[in-house]
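Below: protein 1.
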Amino acid sequence: GAEPGVYKVTSCGEGSAVGCVQGTSHEGYGTVGVIRDITESRRNVTALRQALKEKELLLREMHHRIKNNLQVISSLLSLQGRSLVDETAKEMFRASQARVQAMAMIHEQLYSSSTNFSCINMARYIDDLCRQLATILDVAPTRARLALEVDETLAFEVGTATSVGLLINELVSNSLKHAFLNTSEGTIRVSLSVVAADRFVLAVSDDGVGLPAEYTVRDDAALGHTLVQTLAEQIDGTVSFDGSDGTTVRVDFAAECDSCRSGDDRSL
């Protein structure tokens, strides 16, 4: 007798797709089956695929426009900064440009993605961000070596990635500008690791001049350190400093990223 199976046939005259499921019993001389019209189901799947495609196009265009607008702001800050004579004012413009670039790079990665428009691969982002920082601050690669320790598969949603990116921007910028005043070269390490379910640690350290004893971020009125505290609070984080051997800043924070880490199934 015939093996049980699923068959697709076309109804006479209408071209509808139907599914036919043959029974498993082979006793007797006939076949009992169930036929159901799946035309509407097929139409729904096609409509869903089209809607998903349109959504992805809209998201890509949105991230592209945001990235372009932020790049314009960055360029304006760069042009304005070059026209200044006062070095303190120039440094302020460079710092603002770096912050804008940190946000622009988030949308650049999302725009370039072909599969996921909600999560940021942190290893790629942090590498690009640190390189961009050295360029903006005009720091020679031989003066400050960057060492990155980030899980290649680690990804965060846009909001968390933006906060972490701005934290790295402030901390690495501070090391690049102040850590190696008494030496011709040094190393800056950036690590991002998982310590528990939905708990992470960002650590930025350098082997430079270090910090005064008992230093805390709340004791410093500088904008960069105020931003560090504010950004850490946005991701339910705490900031700690260690200035005994160079400078190490550790941010323990929370992030929910199950969908990003497990991947996004878009198949239909």
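Below: protein 2.
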Amino acid sequence: MNTYLFYVFVCVAKSSKSSSKFGVSDIQDIVSPRSIKKELAACQSIPEGKGMSTRAKAGNKRKKPPEPTGDLPLIEQQLHEFVSEKFVEIQILQCQHLADAEECILDLQTIAAAKDKRIAHLEKENKVLKKQVLLAGITANKERLEIIDDTKNSAAIVTLKIRLQMAKEAADPSFDRAEWDVASWKQRCTSSGTMRMLQRC
């Protein structure tokens, strides 16, 4: 209670015009219930000093963020222009790269088509050459068989001629078989090439 009276006294002293005019009668006015209520209401309306409390009141609102300055819209506009410009540059580069890629693909397709055409032409020529080689082999084999047949016929004819001549000599009544030179006849057959041709055939 004494502390409360002292607090009221201080509040009255602050609200009074001059502290020198404060007297005993004023203390009596303070002690009265009516004056206590008035002074208590007056003290509650006085703002607290910095040293009164170190903690913030629960009802205090948070500080509002600083309002944007006038330069912020300009910065946003510059940033938007920069981003738009870079986006246009990227689109141009992308279109250029796509055009180069399409041109490269077209060149590769042209080269591939020419290569396929060349391969088809070479395959056609290869087939023609194979056919020519096959026909040439057949012709050569046919000619070889004809030559062999001619050689056999020639050898047979020569052999028959020799035998016919030998038979004529043997049929001659004046021919002495004991004096017949067989080695000479073999030499004649060998020199004529009849036996050699017969061996090859």
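The first helix runs from residue 2 to 15.
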